[in-house]
Design brief:
Blueprint (H helix, E strand, L loop, with lengths): L16 H21 L4 E4 L6 H6 L2 E3 L1 H10 L3 H10 L8 H12 L12 E5 L4 H14 L3 E4 L11 H22 L5 H8 L8 H10 L12 H6 L1 H5 L4 H20 L10 E6 L7 H9 L3 E5 L1 H4 L8 H8 L8 H14 L4 E7 L3 H5 L1 H12 L3 E6 L9 H22 L2
Parallel strand pairs: 1-2, 1-3, 3-4, 5-6, 5-7, 7-8
Helix pairs in contact: 1-12, 3-5, 4-5, 5-6, 9-12, 13-19, 16-18
Length: about 425
C-alpha cells in the first residue's frame, strides 16, 4: 500500500500582510514574557481600553480577550471553562472571563501562555461583566486595578460633559500607572503614538478601515473571515508603527486583488452577507465552511470595524472610545450596521446569538429586525458562544444558513438576477 503523501505547507511570503500581521500578534505575547523576565511590570488590558496609555509609557501588555479567543480556537475552551466553573463561577458568565479566570488560577495553558500581570487596566465601555471579571482577577492575584469608566450613552452623540468626565479619568490613569510602574509619561511619545504630530494620524486604524471597506467591490477581494484573524493586531498593536505598515500592506493587497480580479475567497461569490456578533471561535472552521460551501461570503461585520479608532485630536480620541459598539444606543448601533450593509451590497444577515455576550445579543433581536426592514434583506440567527463550544450546534447552524441561502436565492430570482 502506497504511503500517503502529505502536502508541505507553502511558506508565507515575509513581505505579505498575512506574515506581518501574524508576527505582530505573536510578538505581543513574546514581548510581554520577555519584559516580565527583565523585571518590568506587565499589564493585562481590556480590548477597548485606550491603548495609547500603555503604548506611550512603554508598558508591556496582554489582552485576555485575545488570549481566550486563541485558546478557544485551539480547542481548549471547554477545559478552561470547566476549571473556572469548578471554582464557583457560573457557566452563564462570559466564556472569555471564565477562560481568563481559569488561567489566573493555573498560570499555564499550552494553547496560549502569557505573562502574568502586575496591574490590570479595565474599561467599562464593553460591559459590566468586564468590570467584575477584572475585579475578581485583582482580588485573586492581589494586584491593583485601574478602571476607566465610560458609561453607556443613551443619546445619539457624545456630549462634552462625557468627554470631560472620561478625560479626567484618562490623566488619572496615567498618574496611577506612573506610581505603579515607575515609568514616566512623555507628551512627545504620546504625539508619536497617536499621530497628532504628523499629517497622517491614526495610521493603523485608517488603513484597517480602508481595508475592510474594500468589501464595497463586487466580488469582494477578500474572504470576510480573514478579518477575524487580522483584527487581533488592531486590539493589541493599534498604537504601533509596525501595525500601520502591516495594515497598509493589507490594504494594498486587497486593492490589487480588486484590480486583478482575484480574491482570498475561494470559489464563486454567489451571495454577500453581514455577520453580526463576536466570532464563534471554537467553531471558526465550521462556521466559515458552512458559508463558503454555499458560495456565501461574509463581506462585513461591525466586530472588525469596532477596533478602528480614527481621530485627529485628543477630544476626538476620547469620543471614539465613547462610541464603541457596546457603549452606544440602539439607534446609533442600528445606523452603523445599516451603513455597512448598504455600502457593501449585503444581501442577507447572519446573527450570532452569543450566550457569552448578554449585552450584545440582548438587543440584537430588535436591532436586526430594524436592519432587515431598512435594507430589505433576510435575517437569520444561530445559537453559539465566543469561547465555550458546549453552546453551539453544527446541525442548527447548517439548517439556519441553508434557510438564509434559500431566501437570498428566491430574492435574486424575483429580481431577475
Amino acid at each position: 500500500m502506497a504511503e500517503e503523501v502529505k502536502k508541505v505547507p507553502k511558506p508565507v511570503d515575509p513581505n505579505s500582510a498575512k506574515y506581518k500581521l501574524g508576527k505582530i500578534a505573536a510578538d505581543a505575547y513574546v514581548d510581554a514574557i520577555e519584559a516580565k523576565k527583565r523585571g518590568e511590570k506587565v499589564a493585562w488590558v481590556s480590548s477597548n481600553f485606550p491603548v495609547e496609555i500603555p503604548e506611550t509609557m512603554g508598558i508591556a501588555t496582554v489582552y485576555p480577550e485575545n488570549q481566550a479567543a486563541g485558546i478557544a480556537a485551539r480547542g481548549a475552551g471547554t477545559r478552561m471553562c470547566e476549571v473556572a466553573e469548578s471554582e464557583g463561577y457560573s457557566n452563564d458568565i462570559c466564556a472569555y472571563a471564565r477562560v481568563s479566570l481559569a488561567y489566573a488560577k493555573l498560570k499555564s495553558c499550552p494553547e496560549q501562555d502569557v505573562a502574568m500581570p502586575d496591574v490590570l487596566l479595565c474599561c467599562s465601555n464593553i460591559c459590566s461583566c468586564m468590570i467584575k471579571w477584572y475585579e475578581n482577577l485583582a482580588r485573586e492575584l492581589n494586584i491593583p486595578m485601574i478602571l476607566l469608566d465610560i458609561p453607556f450613552n443613551p443619546d445619539y452623540e457624545v456630549s462634552d460633559v462625557e468627554v470631560a468626565y472620561v478625560t479626567g479619568q484618562f490623566w488619572d490613569a496615567v498618574k496611577q500607572l506612573e506610581e505603579i510602574t515607575g515609568k514616566k509619561w512623555s507628551d512627545e511619545k504620546f504625539k508619536e503614538v497617536t499621530g497628532f504630530s504628523c499629517r497622517s494620524p491614526s495610521r493603523p486604524s485608517r488603513a484597517w478601515l480602508a481595508a475592510t471597506g474594500c468589501a464595497r467591490y463586487v466580488p469582494s477581494p477578500f474572504n470576510g473571515f480573514d478579518l477575524l484573524n487580522h483584527m487581533a493586531v488592531m486590539v493589541t498593536a493599534r498604537g504601533k508603527s509596525t501595525a500601520a505598515d502591516a495594515m497598509e500592506t493589507l490594504l494594498k493587497e486587497y486593492e490589487d486583488n480588486h484590480k486583478n480580479g482575484t480574491s482570498t475567497f475561494r470559489g464563486e461569490e454567489k451571495y454577500r452577507i453581514m455577520f453580526e456578533g463576536i466570532a464563534c471561535w471554537p467553531y471558526l472552521r465550521a462556521t466559515s465552511t458552512g458559508l463558503k460551501s454555499r458560495g456565501i461570503n461574509m463581506v462585513t461585520t461591525i466586530y472588525a470595524d469596532a477596533f478602528g479608532f480614527d481621530y485627529n485630536t485628543f477630544d476626538e480620541m476620547i469620543r471614539a472610545y465613547c462610541k464603541v459598539p457596546n457603549a452606544i444606543n440602539l439607534e446609533m448601533s442600528r445606523d452603523k450596521r445599516i451603513k455597512l450593509c448598504k455600502d457593501n451590497h449585503v444581501e442577507g444577515m447572519l446573527v450570532h446569538t452569543n450566550r457569552s455576550c448578554k449585552l450584545w445579543s440582548g438587543f440584537m433581536y430588535e436591532m436586526s429586525r430594524q436592519i432587515g426592514k431598512a435594507c430589505d434583506i433576510p435575517v437569520v440567527s444561530f445559537d453559539g458562544d465566543q469561547a465555550d463550544p458546549r453552546n453551539f450546534s453544527e446541525a442548527q447552524y447548517d439548517t439556519r444558513v441553508q434557510g438564509l441561502t434559500e431566501i437570498m436565492e428566491a430574492n435574486k430570482a424575483a429580481k431577475g438576477v
